Amino acid sequence: MIWMSARTRRLLIAKLNANKAGDKVVEHYCTHIHKTRTYDARFTGSRWMNSILGSKTDTRCVNAFRMDRRTFNQLCHDLQQYGLNESPRIRIVEKVGIFVYTLA
Q1: How far apart are CA 51 and CA 7, in angstroms?
Q2: Rounded to two decimals, what is the model's pTM?
Q3: CA-CA 20 to 30 A from 104: which of 2, 48, 64, 89?
Q4: Res. 4 pLDDT band, cuts 50 70 90
Q5: Do residues 25 and 46 share a domain?
Q6: Where is pLDDT greater, at 47 or 6?
Q7: CA torsion, points 74, 77, 81, 87, in degrees to nearest 10?
Q8: Are residues 13 and 51 in the same domain?
């Protein structure tokens, strides 16, 4: 996977488009080599959980976890009672959220 700036990519495509033989190369580059980021790093970890659980309605929580916020918080509380502990880097809510999101 090759990461390059937008300016460099435009120059490369312009040079390859200058001749007809470069059409297949440009098509291959655009299809298989040039990749874009598929996630937004602003919403990772606790920020993502806070955005879902802190929304005004239960819609985002139901879409992500297939349960409303009250049920999700009760599940976190019950799992804590059964021995699920926080680690220095991740809260119980995040642990349960990752697991339930994977299942949902």
Answers
A1: 35
A2: 0.58
A3: 89
A4: low
A5: no
A6: 47
A7: 150
A8: no
